[in-house]
Task: structure prediction
Amino acid sequence: MTISDPSRTSEPLVEAPPYADADVSYVVDLLDPQEKARFEEIRAFLQEEVRPHSIEPWNREEFASGLVAAMAEHGLGELQLDGSSRLFKGLVYAEVARADVSLSALVGIHNELIVGMIDHLGSEEQKRQWLPGLRTFAKTGAFALTEPLHGSDIAGGLSTTARREGDEWVINGSKRWIGMGTICDFALIWARDEADGQIKAFIVESDREGYSAEKICNKVGLRIMQNAHIELEEVRVPHSNLLPGASSFHAANELLRDSRAWVGWQGVGIQLAAFDVARTYALSREQFGRQLAKFQLVQEPLARMLGNAHASLGLMVQLARVQEEGRLDMVQAALGKSTTTRLARESVAAGRAMLGGNGITSDYEMAKIFGDAEILFTYEGTYEINSLIVARGVTGVSAFV
Result:
């Protein structure tokens, strides 16, 4: 039997919806009825109101403030504070990534690192000042840890400094790849205390003298997210801007671990996005007189993409259970991040190939997803670094030293 038969009379094409449920393992049914209803409402909103409107700002590298405001109305700015289960939050993170990865980066960093850090490590005054606005995205923050010369080795190599002068701290240094760095209300700056050598966190308002941020342009992905290069030159902040619970880098480990696990959910969501596009394309396009979905060389990658997505989903569901029980460690988080983003890279590449020439333009969305997958593979610890963390955990032998 031949793969294509141009002489065969084509059948009517199936009218393909823009996205399918694709929950072939019924994971959403694990939510309690209230969370399930809320999740389905959020999913419909993201797919119908956010996803179609994300392509143009992505093309222009513009921040989509209108879409962020709409997400606030659905509670996406306060997931860290609303008492939701870990599974619910994870599935929502995946759905935001399914709609747009840049916006999922905003939602995830905002909740896991900005809101989470102020809520867990901030003073009561800092909580009163910032949390109400953060819950609705009326205020935004940036998590400023990575530096131009220090990424994977940031824990030992961080060079931004802070010195105390009376009731003030003076901060000097550079930060790079900082999401929201050009438009945030404040940045959580990690700096090494010159007195004791400990890495501490400071709330630095973006209008402070000596704070400057330049947008990083020409990225292949995550183009709605406004990443920045930040310079800090003799920036003075009051002692009250020091997060009292972040008196050493160790204090951030729990939040950084949870943030790494969150990227695993992004890896699930981007695979579902690629599957949506590929499935719709296969059902709606005709070649050689036949519906594209009838070709074996199209059906196989579709099945593989869905299988990769659900292998990733199953892993993340288990990690959510472990996280709910308070037993998640960095090895597990690194395994989730490295595995789902590796499979995402494979799935998205298969989807891009399926679209042929149309797969290289963002008009068909797949090129947008393809570029974003490269970012997931690299940030929050590269694939290689996370793999070494996992291997160290299972062998007891470190490749870092």
The chain has twelve helices and nine strands. Strands lie at 141-144, 161-165, 168-179, 186-193, 199-205, 211-215, 227-238, 286-287, 290-291. Confidence is low (pLDDT under 50) at residues 1-14. Residues 141-247 form a domain with the Butyryl-CoA Dehydrogenase, subunit A; domain 2 fold (CATH 2.40.110.10).
